[in-house]
Model the fold of this input.
Amino acid sequence: MKPAAKLYFERLLLALLGCLFSATLTWFDLAQPLDHLFYDVFNEAAPLAPAPDVVIVAIDEDSLRELGRWPWPRENHVELLRRLHAQGVSAVAMDILFAEPYHDYPEVDDLLAAELRQLQRTVLPVFIGRTRQDDRLREMLPVAPLAAAAGAIGHVHIEVDADGVARQVYLREGLGAARWPHFTVALAELLAQAPNPLPGVSDQAVLEDPDPRAIIRSHANFIPFMGGAGSVAQVSYADVMKGRLAPGLLRDKIVFVGATAAGHVDNIATSLGQISGVEVNANIFQALRSGRLARPLHKAPATLLGAAVIALTIFGFTRLRPGHLLAAVLGGVLLLSLASYLLLRAANLWVSPAPVLLTLLLAYPLWNWLRLAAAMDFIQRHLLQLDQENRQSFFPDSGRTRPGATSSDPVDAILQQLDAAYSQSRQHHQLVRDTLAQLSSGVLLAEPGGTLLFVNDEARKLLAITGSERTLERALAACEAVGRTTLQELLAGLSRCGEHFNVEGVSRASGHDLLLQGGLVGPERALLLLVLTDVTQLKHAEKRRAEALNFLSHDLRAPLTSVLALIEGYRDRPGATDPRLLQQIEKYIRANLSYAENFIQLARLEQAAQPRFDECEAQSLVDNAVAQLFHMAASRGIGLRVSDQGDDIWLRCSRELVERVLINLIDNALKHSDRGATVTVGVDLDEGAALFTVRDQGEGIAEDDLQRIFAEYQQGANARSGAGLGLRFVAAVAQAHGGSVEAANDPAGGCVFTLRLPLGNA
Done:
């Protein structure tokens, strides 16, 4: 079978399988969790309009504290209805069961019935439940006087889905027959606000042949909500009872009476959280009279609609190119979701997009797999042909032109082009060139006579080749080998394939250190191959390692050796105690500790991530650093003065690092100051930065050393001690803070170090 015919058959098969899969999901409700998720999102995106004329008289915590534990005497409800009648309410829906006579005061039921007749438009609930005696279902009606006095009676059942969330309501329900309207339908009918006919979906087969022992339901609808708990206006039951409401506050209001107190309320889980049953009924009532209850589409038309959409979508989308197909699938997902939302919003019709979307998303990778399998089968057959041809020639003939695609199917067209490309057999040579071009090392390939065949981008960068060089000699003009033998001599010394050399070199054009590897390659045709590897960073790291070892072997060992010599000299003088000995030992140990601390801090700073910054007061940094060196300065007879500019300067910095920097600068100033001199430390504010200065009265720094002293293991010509790490650490900390450090000679004598740190560091 030709690839085009095979793909057409697979496209048709995939469309049929998609229809079957979508129909299965819809008919058996297999996508119900995703259905619920879509409805919850759409419901929250388009909330129900508020009901300004609906108020809940809430049996809340305040009412329980004031009127006592539940259940209350029915006299309370009599008084409540009297108060509501006095307020001039439009209707009352009492979401409270009165299924048994009030034995403590039988006459109260008659009083309550009288108040219900007085109000006229009142609704009481009926509840279907199991009896304790025989565990049989029965309808629990209000006691006879109340049932006769109420304007209407309705059931209060709310359907809960498998995930425990209430989304649907049946507007009619009853034991053996759907005789009872919903609580809210009964109220709406009393107020002449009920739609006719009632909206919703019913199972006619069940209604025509009901089971007398089962609960029969009809007119199923999805519930929209005004919002979470508390979206409906509420007043406290106790406030109504005690007459604390303003006169006329409830005039012409539709009042729902029910429990909202924690532990005394039939809380119902919704997509918007836990909502009391009475407030759910208020939401249903508002949706019913405003025509916003959403009826679900029957299974049969929903199944057929989903199958039709899937058939058209899959058969159309699979004709697109792979890149366009992904965009089309994502666009289809958005459009189908939008269509479902618009149907819910504009037509109050719930058609879940979940089965169609799941089928479409599953069909996408399945179709790609089918196309990939077809392409791979086609490619493998032609690779076998190509392999047979390439056995005769390393570089295949490329003289034939590639034929144009004749199929309208994008996949078939690509396969035809691939067939033409393989028949022309030019892939080996291009593969070699592409591979060499992507290497991180420079590669030059040339004829033995010196003619360049190939130079990759890395080689052009290392040798600064502009593109006009045609010979190997000109390309290597800026490169030389380290040693007595030149690179040209090394290349000329190669006589047969397999010979090679490895030497170090340098590129004068880029200044990089190179490792040069060359040799003759090729099984039949010998070619010169030269590989250039940039080892500049490696040599730099090796140099730093050597300097670090030198520092460890000399600068850290020297003070310790001196300490050992002093101790050895005084070993035979146990009775003598010379303070100068202790001073010298202390001096060497302090120097050694300073070297080690600078070395460790510098290593941590250069190898660690960004240091932690905190809000610091600049003057406190100076004071802490001066405090640590004050006694040492006094012992040397050197004054240590702090210049306080007065205002607080706050900056974001690493307190530990900045204090260490100031200690290094002050210690450096003390080393270069004579007895009787003064070292001045200050901080000032300068254009969004903190400016720290350390000024000494020493001999100053040679002009040639002003910048060099901040390099690692470097010291000025007048250095008296140290290892060259202290000022390098200062420069590294300044750089990590986005600042700078400078050294300058004071015309009045001495040297001034200036550390500039921005006030705000990220």
Observations:
- The domain at 610-758 is CATH 3.30.565.10 (Heat Shock Protein 90).
